[in-house]
Design a protein that fits this description.
The structure is a single chain. The chain is of the alpha/beta class and 507 residues long. Helix content is 44%, strand content 12%. It has 17 helices and 11 strands. The strands form 2 sheets. It has a 7-stranded mixed beta sheet with strand order 1-7-6-5-4-2-3, sandwiched between helices. It has a 4-stranded antiparallel beta sheet with strand order 8-9-11-10. Helix 5 packs antiparallel against helix 15 and helix 6 runs parallel beside helix 15. It starts with a helix and ends in a 6-residue tail after the last helix. The structure holds pyridoxal-5'-phosphate (PLP). Pyridoxal-5'-phosphate binds next to helix 7.
């Protein structure tokens, strides 16, 4: 039984985690000021401090114990901004062109703060009335932007992996010839289900094959042509063979565009083949789908709008701060019935969208707000301008490489350009052994040196067995001046690495 003192305490409860509006305003302003300073100073900072895990752990005292008592929130946030700003890689830096991780839109940063302040649980409409409708509108706008039917079903998820997996599971539920959701794979009355994707497909497919119970061995890897696009004849041959063996092909995955070189599969041809054979056609457009908004790039993506489902990533080419992926499914009921199990303890009414029935999550955060705000802030025309600029900058780099005899341009698609450094003395024997192997090692070393330098940031791709350097521009802060710095730096660090690594016994 509580004493009356204890009851008094509870009546005037003071929670250590709460803040007075005054304190919140004070520390909130401090954080916003620090972020503004960061944005201002980004171009002068290294893209990454390239520190070791040990250095980072020491800086944040990783081995210290859980504090018994708390500290002042202002001092804590001040210290934390310093820790983060001094020891992070900045994908918002104008010279970050490494992975397909975009510079975060400032309005998205504020959107996340606002979303957390309201904290709606966007699993069910009554718990998130405005947030649910904002998500529904965001999904419609994303479909509209890429030319996909606006009456499709859709849901925001954590990123490309999950967006693809949601579409994959929808395809599996819809296309299985038996009630797979109730009885599982053991009840399959005929041959095994088969999935088709090119050898360039992103690794989400392995996870999807695994967690769906199909197993990675049920994935048919279709070879690609010299442009890294799915070979249609090979796809047809594999489909014919499997059908003759009594297997059940049900899903073909087209990629638009691939993570390493930005290649786009022949979507229109795959779409008509899938229609002919009654297969589900899914497009992984995690990165490339948004290029469909740009009129001169849209023709590369013809056929995507015919897909049964498309995965797109607002945290890639819509510049949303992580995390935001989006699964779009042409038939909204197919999406719902793949995930709705009509749990009797949820009675949220039928007219409203309850997003827990459209995907894997139950409780869900308000991811849509940052995406919706950015779409409203700049509109379609703003996105067309930014995506077009990114593409043109990647092309500009490709063209610029012609002035650098020691740099071999290798591929250019959308905003991805690949190339490699070949020292002058090895130019005429780049394809002979052991030079070929040496060039792979040399370019790996150049990549490591670039990262350590902090001057620019790029990543790599393997192109026809060769190690290539790769830039991907999904960064609205990058200008031509930044792009022009890349070949100079690659050449300088390439020469330096070659001087140190070149075997002494080579002529
Ligand atoms: C084509 C493609 N699909 C899927 C993904 C995975 O996306 P995420 O990292 O958001 O899960 C990526 C990531 O770069 C990608 O480029």
């Amino acid at each position: 039984m509580a004493t009356s003192d204890r009851l008094d305490q509870l009546r005037q409860r003071s929670a250590p985690l709460d803040m007075s509006p005054r304190e919140f305003r004070e520390v909130g302003h401090l954080v916003v000021d620090r972020i503004a300073e960061l944005l201002e100073s980004l171009p002068d900072r290294p893209v990454t401090p390239a520190e070791t895990p040990g250095t980072i752990r020491e800086a944040m005292r990783a081995s210290s114990q859980l504090p018994e008592d708390g500290i002042d929130a202002g001092a804590l946030l001040d210290e934390t901004t310093k820790l983060l700003f001094d020891h992070s890689l900045f994908n918002g830096h104008p010279r970050f062109l490494g992975y397909i991780t975009s510079a975060p839109a400032p309005i998205g940063m504020l959107g996340d703060l606002l979303a957390a302040a309201v904290n709606p649980n966007v699993g069910a409409w009554p718990m998130a009335p405005m947030a649910t409708e904002i998500e529904a509108q965001t999904v419609r706008w994303i479909a509209e932007l890429i030319g996909y039917p606006v009456d499709s079903g859709g849901i925001l998820v954590s990123g490309g992996n999950l967006a693809n997996i949601v579409c994959f599971l929808t395809a599996r539920a819809k296309k299985a010839s038996w009630d797979l959701q109730s009885h599982g794979l053991d009840a399959n009355p005929s041959g095994p289900l088969r999935v088709y994707a090119s050898t360039e497909v992103h690794t989400w497919i392995n996870k999807a094959m695994d967690i769906s119970g199909l197993g990675t061995a049920s994935l048919r890897w279709i070879q690609v042509d010299e442009e890294s696009r799915m070979d249609l004849a090979a796809l047809k041959a594999q489909l014919d063979k499997d059908a003759a063996d009594g297997d059940q092909p049900f899903l073909v995955v087209g990629t638009a565009s691939t993570v390493s070189t930005g290649a786009i599969d022949p979507l229109a041809e795959i779409a008509s083949l899938c229609r002919e054979r009654d297969l589900w056609f899914h497009v992984d457009g995690a990165y490339g789908a948004f290029a469909a908004a740009v009129p001169e790039a849209a023709e590369l993506l013809v056929g995507m709008s015919e897909a049964d489902s498309v995965a797109v990533d607002p945290h890639k080419w819509l510049y949303a701060p992580l995390e935001a992926g989006c699964a779009l499914v042409r038939d909204p009921e197919a999406l719902r019935s793949a995930f709705a199990h009509g749990a009797p303890y949820y009675h949220f009414g039928e007219m409203a969208t309850n997003y827990f029935e459209y995907g894997l999550q139950n409780s869900r955060g308000f991811r849509a707000l940052k995406v919706w705000l950015a779409l409203r802030q700049v509109g379609r025309s703003g996105y067309v301008q930014m995506i077009r600029d990114d593409i043109d900058l990647a092309k500009a780099l490709f063209d610029l490489l012609a002035d650098y005899p020691e740099i071999e341009p290798m591929s250019q698609n959308l905003s991805i350009t690949t190339f490699r450094y070949i020292p002058e003395d090895l130019l005429d024997r780049a394809e002979t052994d052991p030079v070929r192997t040496y060039l792979d090692e040399l370019n790996q070393e150049i990549l490591a040196r670039i990262e350590r330098s902090g001057e620019i940031y790029l990543s790599n791709a393997i192109i026809q067995g060769r190690f290539a350097l790769r830039i991907c521009v999904v960064n609205f802060r990058t200008s031509l001046e930044d792009i022009e710095a890349f070949p100079e730096i690659v050449q300088r660090l390439g020469r330096e690495a070659h001087r140190e690594l070149r075997p002494d016994d080579w002529s």
